[in-house]
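Quick one:
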Amino acid sequence: MPLLKSLPKKSYWKLNTSLLTDCKFDNEFRVYYSMWRTLKPGFASIKEWWENVKMRIRELGVIHGVRRAREKRDLLIALQSRCLEGDTEDVERILLEEQRGAFVRSREKVLEKGEIPSGYFYTKERNAAEAKQILSVKGENGNIVSGDNVRRVFQDFYTKLYSTENDIDVECQSELLNCIKSKVADADRLDLDRPLSS
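Output:
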């Protein structure tokens, strides 16, 4: 039984590395990251701060990825109308970029010179995505769990892993927390809670 209905569409997120060459993304990232760095003292731990920063980087990446896809789509529409008038060079360049993207996503290592991605590459891309699904897993008692219960096994595992029922030296913890002098100002906290982009 496939887990498509019970699992989120994406189990993890990767930054589209082509955004690293995008000037708008680069400039906005630098501004936000310099602000995020000043907020470290306001978090209980560096790990908590980093998790927050990763979430914000993801939001920023998605926003700029959507913007770039929209720009590319608009350009393709404009080029298609020019193509009707005989100018096909730019259209071919963009289509080649799309084909290369499908090739990379298909996880193939070699592409012969002049070969273009066909249905084979798109099938490989789909198969690679399906291979990432976890269809069954060993539960805590050693039994194989499948279906909707797979998510529950992972949830229980990470809940226990990050639970506060660890052997914590409360005295040491208090001493460490009392050393923190800086706090996030209320005005900065409000600014951090707002969306990255409107």
